[in-house]
Design brief:
The complex is a heterodimer of chains A (about 230) and B (about 240). Chain A has about 230 residues and is mainly alpha-helical. In chain A, about 80% of the residues lie in helices and about 0% in strands. With about 240 residues, chain B is mainly alpha-helical.
Chain lengths: ~230, ~240
């Protein structure tokens, strides 16, 4: 059979998509976790509308981020355990490209579907329509950066005894620029300023991660494979 | 010189005569510095006696970031030339840096309560220092997370290099953002703006911290070398 870049690409995407379809349990867990956080917040803060409008946007963000973090450090772990990563390493394609494809598929099939829930939760928490719109845009862009950070962290922790404790420590400090600029966009919209500068900064952070993350991840995957 | 000292045995022989005197110097400088800062330095015209927290807060903060810089430089050496001794130096400096960064935050909040009225504010300098602390935690966590301790050194080195982004943010956070924390007063383009009488005890304290941290890191390096030797002996015995 002739080795064709396009064929490999399609096969890779198909394989990744099928593996996510088979582990649909993870996705359901994420959703249940998100709903639990959304319900818990009004119960603990108190149902008064004044208090809730101050923090409502933060609640949606926290629910999304906290439910994503446990899955972020498992991008490579099943591939590492059943030997797929070695096959990727020896394949004619560059490891960096495969990592990029894996991140994109992870982002597209696991994170983007979560944007459906942003309007639902936002309506529950009385967030105005304009901010919901911006929230969806920020989440779609920022979560790509999130996946790329997750790729760094999950490749660094390959082969550890238990990576539950370390990975949030690794992810949070790296993800802080995304939080800051995402929050900047929402604050600007709330106070009728131009949100675009902050949005551009957010996109810049994600583009820098798009360059750096595959390089670091492929290097640390090579280290993990040669142990 | 670096090549010569990169051998653990030669390094141990080299530090043997000077190690004790480094420790003595450290004790002496810190003792003199503490005396000068507590009894023989002027009060601040606004802050009164609480300004004396500065004489330990600034050295803690400086050496927390300086030790992180040295860890990441050692990590670069380790990743490029693959010399195991660089990894041992980085590992030995990490716990001390973690303690320094925690103590920076603690002394800072003790100083902040009487001056600013709060223990903690989420402003740029304080948050970036907290992130440095988290990076230390992550570094130590990841370097010890693997079943074989040696496996953790390369991922930890990568993490240390990635975390280097934070260092310029800490240094320039007071210039880039409007913060409650006061701007830099010692390392500036137009020379130190701090009072001469306050500068002297601070410099002595900084020297004392320098010697003291070198002394503690040397002890850590020796411990790690002994541990490594012990592990290889176990491997030999099978």
């Amino acid at each position: 059979m002739k080795i064709n870049f396009k064929n490999i690409l399609i096969a890779l995407i198909e394989k990744e998509f099928k593996s996510y379809l088979r582990s649909i349990n993870n996705f359901m867990n994420m959703i249940v976790f998100m709903i639990a956080i959304i319900i818990l917040f009004p119960l603990t803060v108190g149902p008064s509308e004044e208090k809730l409008t101050l923090v409502s946007n933060a609640i949606v963000w926290i629910a999304l981020i906290v439910s994503i973090i446990p899955t972020l450090d498992k991008i490579y772990i099943s591939d590492f355990k059943n030997g797929w990563l070695e096959q990727y390493y020896y394949s004619p394609l560059l490891l960096e490209i495969i990592i990029l494809i894996k991140c994109f598929v992870f982002w597209f099939f696991l994170i983007i579907p979560l944007t459906i829930f942003i309007p639902i939760f936002s309506i529950l928490l009385n967030i105005p329509f304009l901010i919901i719109f911006w929230n969806i845009i920020i989440f779609a862009i920022g979560s790509l950066g999130f996946c790329l950070i997750g790729s760094i962290c999950s490749s660094l922790t390959l082969g550890t005894k238990s990576n539950n404790l370390i990975s949030p420590l690794l992810i949070l400090p790296l993800a802080i620029p995304i939080f800051i600029f995402g929050n900047g966009v929402v604050e600007a919209v709330k106070s009728n300023y131009d949100p675009l500068p902050n949005l551009y900064l957010l996109i810049t952070v994600c583009l820098i991660l798009l360059i750096i993350s595959p390089l670091i991840s492929s290097y640390s995957i090579k280290i993990a494979l040669t142990k | 010189m670096i090549n010569y000292l990169a051998n653990p045995n030669r390094f141990l022989n080299f530090i043997k005569p000077i190690e004790f005197s480094i420790g003595v110097f450290g004790f002496l400088f810190i003792f003199i510095g503490l005396y000068l800062s507590l009894f023989n330095s002027p009060e601040d015209y606004q802050q009164g006696d609480t300004v004396r927290i500065m004489y330990i807060h600034v050295p803690f903060a400086w050496f927390a970031s300086f030790l992180y810089l040295s860890i990441s430089i050692a990590s670069i050496f380790f990743l490029i030339w693959r010399h195991p001794f660089a990894d041992i130096i980085a590992r030995s400096a990490a716990p001390l840096g973690l303690i320094f960064s925690i103590l920076t935050i603690l002394t800072g909040s003790l100083w902040g309560k009487p001056m600013w009225g709060t223990w903690w504010v989420w402003d740029a300098r304080l948050t970036s220092m907290l992130i440095l602390c988290i990076f230390y935690f992550a570094y130590i966590g990841i370097s010890n997370a693997f079943p074989r301790k040696i496996d953790g050194s390369k991922p930890a080195a990568i993490l240390a290099i990635v975390g280097m982004v934070n260092l310029p943010i800490i240094k320039f956070s007071v210039d880039w953002w409007n913060t409650l924390h006061q701007p830099a007063s010692i390392i500036r383009f137009d020379g130190p703006s701090i009072n001469q009488e306050m500068l002297l005890p601070l410099v002595i304290m900084l020297l004392g911290f320098l010697f003291m941290s070198i002394f503690i890191i040397l002890i850590n390096i020796k411990t790690n070398l002994i541990y490594k030797k012990y592990q290889s002996e176990i491997l030999k015995l099978g």
